[in-house]
Amino acid sequence: MGFEQNIRKVEPYVAGEQPKNPGVIKLNTNECPYPPSPLVKEAEGKIDYEKLRLYPDMNAEKLVDALAEYYQVKPSQVFVGVGSDDVLSMAFLTFFNGSLPVLFPDITYSFYDVWADLYRIPYKTCPLTEDFHIRKEDYLVPNGGIIFPNPNAPTGVLEEVSMIEEIIRANQDVVVIIDEAYIDFGGESVLPLIDKYENLLVVQTFSKSRAMAGMRIGYAMGNEKLIRYLKDAKFSFNSYTMNLPSIEMGTAAVKDDAYFKETTGKIIATRERVKKEMKKLGFFFTDSMSNFLFAGHENVPAGELFRALKENDIYVRYWNKDRISNRLRITIGTDEQMDRFLEFLRSYLNN
Amino acid sequence: MGFEQNIRKVEPYVAGEQPKNPGVIKLNTNECPYPPSPLVKEAEGKIDYEKLRLYPDMNAEKLVDALAEYYQVKPSQVFVGVGSDDVLSMAFLTFFNGSLPVLFPDITYSFYDVWADLYRIPYKTCPLTEDFHIRKEDYLVPNGGIIFPNPNAPTGVLEEVSMIEEIIRANQDVVVIIDEAYIDFGGESVLPLIDKYENLLVVQTFSKSRAMAGMRIGYAMGNEKLIRYLKDAKFSFNSYTMNLPSIEMGTAAVKDDAYFKETTGKIIATRERVKKEMKKLGFFFTDSMSNFLFAGHENVPAGELFRALKENDIYVRYWNKDRISNRLRITIGTDEQMDRFLEFLRSYLNN
């Protein structure tokens, strides 16, 4: 045994596959089917490689300023990190230090319980309703903090801002984190509430609507106090994380609002069209406001569909887990990709 | 008080200043005075920006393969992360889970105790000798793991491989981490020992000798078991951290060994020349084998010199801390920068 006795044993994470075969239609990891803004390419070409010898700006001021301007908040209200996973993990560490359990839904982003365990934070999951909505009452009890995605993942279900505001208002003794990774596909953000409620942190990402999963950029917005606590915690043990290309190329992405609106608009239009077509084929699903659908079929089990799709080089996501084992999570691709997906379903379901 | 009661309060880290004035001679954060390899620039121009929409390869296979080839180890013996801070922090989390204290020197890299506190790891610091060497005996006692930099920071003192091997051999029930951030400036690496001792992890970085502090790339090498544990821990709670530019540009840097040898050779030559000149000026210092000197003056207090240098736009590092309050840490810059530094000292000390 020897040195292995002191080693942390974990449940390794199983990510959506990243196939190397370029023929695959990849609808399994909620990436954007369109490239980032052309301004990102331009910024890439302008990175001063001689500057790489220096540590990057630990405050990533340029990127923070661009985000602050875009969202009309103060730079002191913005925190950036290496993907929203980094930002969320830091927020768990910083804000969830109480002895009461942190609350989040039973069906939700798979890293919440992992971070809670990692930082030894007590938590309790609250069951979603049968149609995958949050039951407000579950969050109106004493707790050590609250976090949920809106829209939720992997369900795509969007909650009303008014309902979320009730939860925030009733929980001013703890921090409430709304994880808006998928908010740009038709949802209404709670961001305007950060000036009204000191206990609200809104987290977003460049990985979906800004088509930059490969850059790893996430950010949080909240009142200055929360952001300062986050920064203090982060800088106390890892000061330099956002590299120079992330800062430069991320900044460029934020500046191209026209492109952002165009691509998110296209994804929303494709999603609504695919919903109609899938309904005709006998699928049921949540009214997803994300860049993915969460769908099951009235006759054919999801596991079977998942395997049939995969054999035909169409990758979607499937979890053989309680309550969601008869659902597929299908990322919205380009119109062409979705047409091939629908065509396969039509032919498969008619045989 | 409200929500602030549950918030983690920390001692914020004070980094070496990153002045915006381009006239400053910046000898305060141990960066490389030369730019990265021209191959890095070339790789930068070739990054496929369309691929940024996809998550990066979580295994960073291309970079791992390049490092494995360079160091003549197996890819399964290499772990990469966002700077060596990320790698070291992950190693603390993964390997130091015992109940006995982890051991490291009293004067050493300032993040070791921070990570230990963060992950609630018990630790004990072992005083260096008067001339800042490790006392081997201090590490031949029951412990939960061992870590020290070689050469040490901020002292620059290099320990013999044979002495380190004795420590590794005597501690096969725990993991021993040798932090070789500064090994490429004339030190002998313990890397060849990873096939002999299963409990040895060697950590290095692109931030110093490879002139890429702005990219944030660090790596660890050890036997396959250790590397698998590290990967499992990392992937379990943050799967995607190395972004596409880091993977591509990091790989390019590893491939230019001629440039690497040329720049590290220049830094070593400059360091040895500066040692001689500083000695003539009445400085005493360790025989640093790093890209910095750790020096005090026989008559003038270090704090005074620090302020005088700063007023003249020459930034070095100074800590007003027990045992090192009469020392400056001076990064080795270009010959031209060091000549201006020496010139200032000559004139200051003669007045």
UniProtKB/TrEMBL annotation, chains A, B:
Q: Which UniProt keywords apply?
A: Amino-acid biosynthesis, Aminotransferase, Histidine biosynthesis, Pyridoxal phosphate, Transferase
Name the coenzymes or cofactors required: pyridoxal 5'-phosphate
Instruction: Point out residues bearing the modification N6-(pyridoxal phosphate)lysine.
Output: K208
**A GO molecular-function descriptor:** histidinol-phosphate transaminase activity
Q: What is its EC number?
A: 2.6.1.9
Give the metabolic or biological pathway. Amino-acid biosynthesis; L-histidine biosynthesis; L-histidine from 5-phospho-alpha-D-ribose 1-diphosphate: step 7/9
Q: Which Pfam families is this protein grouped with?
A: Aminotran_1_2 (PF00155)
Q: Which residues form the Aminotransferase class I/classII large domain?
A: 23-344
Q: Which reaction does it catalyse?
A: L-histidinol phosphate + 2-oxoglutarate = 3-(imidazol-4-yl)-2-oxopropyl phosphate + L-glutamate
Q: Which protein family is it in?
A: Belongs to the class-II pyridoxal-phosphate-dependent aminotransferase family. Histidinol-phosphate aminotransferase subfamily.
The cross-references to HAMAP family, in alphabetical order and at most eight, read:
HisC_aminotrans_2
Cite the record's note on assembly. Answer: Homodimer.
The name of this protein is: Histidinol-phosphate aminotransferase
Name its species. Suilimivivens aceti
